[in-house]
Description:
The complex is a heterodimer.
Chain A: H1 15-24, H2 29-44, E1 75-80, E2 85-88, H3 89-94, H4 99-105, H5 116-124, E3 127-133, E4 143-149, E5 152-153, E6 155-161, E7 166-175, E8 179-188, E9 193-202, E10 207-216, E11 221-228, E12 233-242, E13 248-257, E14 262-271, E15 277-286, E16 291-300, E17 307-317, E18 323-332, E19 337-347, H6 351-359, H7 364-380, H8 386-401
Parallel strand pairs in A: 3-6, 4-7, 5-8, 6-8, 7-9, 8-10, 9-11, 10-12, 11-13, 12-14, 13-15, 14-16, 15-17, 16-18, 17-19
Antiparallel strand pairs in A: 1-4, 2-3
Chain B: H1 7-10, E1 24-25, H2 32-41, H3 46-61, E2 84-85, H4 100-109, H5 111-117, E3 121-126, E4 129-135, H6 137-142, E5 145-148, H7 149-155, H8 157-163, H9 174-182, E6 187-191, E7 201-206, E8 217-222, E9 227-235, E10 243-245, E11 248-253, E12 258-267, E13 271-281, E14 286-295, E15 298-301, E16 304-307, E17 313-322, E18 327-336, E19 342-351, E20 356-365, E21 372-382, E22 388-397, E23 402-412, H10 415-423, H11 428-439, H12 441-444, H13 449-466
Parallel strand pairs in B: 3-7, 6-8, 7-9, 8-11, 9-12, 10-13, 11-13, 12-14, 13-15, 13-16, 14-17, 15-18, 16-18, 17-19, 18-20, 19-21, 20-22, 21-23
Antiparallel strand pairs in B: 1-2, 3-4, 5-6
Helix pairs in contact in B: 2-3, 3-9, 7-8, 10-11, 11-13
Amino acid sequence: MPGEVLxxxxxxxxxxxxxxxxxxxxxxxxxxxxRLRAFDxxxxxxxxxxxxxxxxxxNLRGLSFDELDLSQPPELTVRGGAGASVLPLSLALADxxxxxxxxxxxxxxxxxxxxxxxxxxxxxxxAARVVVVPRGQAVAEPLWLTWQAxxxxxxxxxxxxxxxxxxxxxxxxxxxxQLASGVVEQVLGANAHVRYVQLQRWAPEVxxxxxxxxxxxxxxxxxxxxxxxxxxxSRTAIQTVLEGQSAQVDLLxxxxxxxxxxxxxxxxxxxxxxxxRSDLVIHNALRDRSSANFTGLIRINPSAYRTESSQExxxxxxxxxxxxxxxPKLEILNNDVIxxxxxxSVGPVDPESVFxxxxxxxxxPTAERLIVEGFYQSVLxxxxxxxxEEAIWAxxxxxxxxx
Amino acid sequence: xxxxxxDLSKDYKYGFSDxxxxxxxxxxxxxxxxxxxxxxxxxxxxxxLQFRLRALEIFGQKPMPTWPAxxxxxxxxxxxxxxxxxxxxxxxxxxxxxPSYIKDTFDKLGIPEAERKFLAGVSAQYESEVVYHSIRExxxxxxxxxxxxxxxxxxxxxxxxxxxxxxxxxxxxxFAALNSAVWSGGSFIYVPKNTQVEIPLQAYFRINAxxxxxxxxTLIIADEGSRxxxxxxxxxxxxxxxxxxxxVVELIAxxxxxxxxxxIQNWSNNVxxxxxxRAVAYEDATVEWVDGNLGSKVTMKYPAVYLLGPRARAxxxxxxxxxxxxxxxxxxxxxxxAPDTTSTITSKSISKDGGRAAYRxxxxxARGATRAKSFVRCDALLLDQESRSDTYPSIEIDEERVDIGxxxxxxxxxxxxxxxxxxxxxxxxxxxxxIVNGFFEAFTKELPMEYAVELNRLLALQMxxxxx
Lengths: 403, 468
């Protein structure tokens, strides 16, 4: 634009900018091409609107890419996790043993053309970490990654949990990103056990998008917990593919929304191998004029014999202006099902419980707070790792979860 | 060993057809001229012609619903007869005047039998026009109007004009628009204030001509404090090319009234059954949809209740049986728009021989509908490895003080159950039939006995077809 002065670091959302970025980072051809393909998708796709499948209840009015600052990737602080390696993508690519595996897995779990935000992510992400947990390695102390952002936060996390490994990984997002579009790809080898926790604590004005997919090998297990307490609009899409025989998934979620925040959770429990199990538990508590949407699908494919699967999605409405929508869906293509159930509920804090606590001398706000805490705790406990649960609870504190 | 899909149609109970004898049959296809012809032939008032023409326009503008599994694009709207009139004399009021070839058909369906024993009034829709109709005298004395829709339009034009298309406007969906443009037949019922219709009113529906669509239109108005139960049963002969059934049913439950609408549908396996059913319930009124879906090629049907007055109540009971090559996409919708309204939706579906059954529902609580209570329960039974079951409940809650629950489960016939029943001397087929009957019991126990017996027979037939 004539007369406009760009700061040198400012990147435009153009194909040339993608090429420049990849060249500066000396990325291999396959990655450059991947970025360019992603950019073309980003460029081609319109912003999803409420007629777009999967976005019907997500209102993106007011979202713009015009002022997006791609020059400041978020800063990362790493704690714990001895035994696992956390490498920036550029370093991982320089490792000759790791490089071929990156080519095999990067953008293979979450495809580049999934939606406009994922495409944007792949085209411009410079905050990518590769977490490798070596074969047979049990990581005792949780690996805690804290991302602090101010510009665009395009954080990519690729987890390679090798056969027989065991790790707890927490990703925490804080600060005032303009827009966050994160992608988490997890590849679990045979008998690998991963607990993945994402704490979404963005400032209240952030548009937050997160896409998390995982592929599970034989006898692998994944417990994934998403805690959403921040952002202006938060959309988290989680897909787990239970490929290997006897793979197990617990898909957990805790949502605390206030103000006019909208929280959208989209989940898929995709059973392909036989004897697999997946259980989803998502509890939302909504205040003020906040709203939540849950769209979850259990798909039991013809190849998935003896599946056990469930969805439990509960909403507590703490204000008469809050709103909750719930679409728990089942698609069953195999009749040899051990268990396939889903349940959803919406309502206020149980008046009987409040009455009971009040009769014990508590005032009403305290009683409601305790009930909501219990509602969250019942999800948190399903992580099955008491020390980790405590650490998460301490971080979230009362201010964020039960204000 | 499993017998293949097509064999089932051989056993299809009502899969006979009579030689065609029609007094009037429109040419194939759909355009302005056809619609004008239908309206002129029926000597309709101008407002109805205008209603039809507007609907035709809307039909042309509305896109086809896109749902790949239903293959709706296979419907060739230009290859359908939109209006067929079976005989010159309409609305015979005694059995003797009914043409004998039609009587034969009804004999096979058992109507005279049922009437003698049980029925209050019969309004059997043979093709697109009602040809037989009777109301017991006491009903007439009570002031209950039970007519075919065409007669109602002639005899009670003011009431029809006041309510027709008010619950389901032509623009509601593409198939409602189609029905609005070419509708013919169906029932009209008006129950005056505080009148209890003790015995169910009933109509049989039937398609008899190849490629002939059936677009009946039913409107029931229950005035304050009244009560009525309407039953429709559908059968159709088997034909090689696809038939289309696209009905519109509107129910208006005034304050304190009670309407129950029972459907047992058993279309032959080539029928597209795309029906829009909706009720409005005012203060203290109750609407119950009891909906059984067997047969057809594709059924898409989601009876709806709008709870518009305080303490209004909705109950939807939907069962579906999807056999080979069939898609049963059924469900229910309830909109809570007033305080203290309650609803329950119970859905039971069975899939067999590669059939696909889906529950698709909507439960919506609008702001201000305080203390709304609702429970949605979906159970699915998969009888073999090739079949499929889908559940798509949709819940939208805009109000805090509500009590909303939803549960669904999917199961198969367990080996333990089968083993137990077989150890008691039942064959595998008998055992499975018994389990299926038990699964549907919540539905069958809501039916008048004759229907329950017939349904159980139909289920047994469906089960036998599959297991050799």
